[in-house]
# Entry
Amino acid sequence: MVEEKLDRILITDTWLSLFEGAKACSLISPYSNHLPILITPEVVNTVRRRRRFCFDNMWLKEVNYREMVKHSWDKTIGMDVLLRITVCSQDIWRWGHEYNRDFLRKIEGTKAKFERLRTRRDSVATFILEQRAKEHWWKGGDSNTKYFHNSVKMRKRRNKVHKLQNEDGVWIDNADAIGSVMVDYFQLLFTATKW
# Structure
């Protein structure tokens, strides 16, 4: 007879990181061909090591950085050079930690501001399209911007003047000449006539 273990345990990486010393063993069950599994979680105390110092070249562009290094170096005058370097590096490490944390906050704040501006721009663009389309049913229904965009294009095509008849009765279809016909018409219309 061939026996195979079919029962399994599923855990996540997070759980495993919390209980690295966990043990599992199969128990004997007289009533089933499946074996119950007993998990004995054991918390392993791990000593957190301090993160290694990493210098970031971006700090060199900060005015505050140079001032902090100068202040740190000046406050250790008279000490051994190795001790001065140690104190200065600790100050740099603390300053860099704060700077990077603030930098990440600024990035998140900028992303949030960008998102607000993007949604505002989208709503303004939709409003302009709706206004240009002269469609009012959108208030109670679907606001499909493609529809409004096509509606604006259709309205523009419909309102375009393709040809005009001048005062001599000649049809003008050249765009520049149409403009001249319009100017001449309105100048004649608004010119005061003496009675």
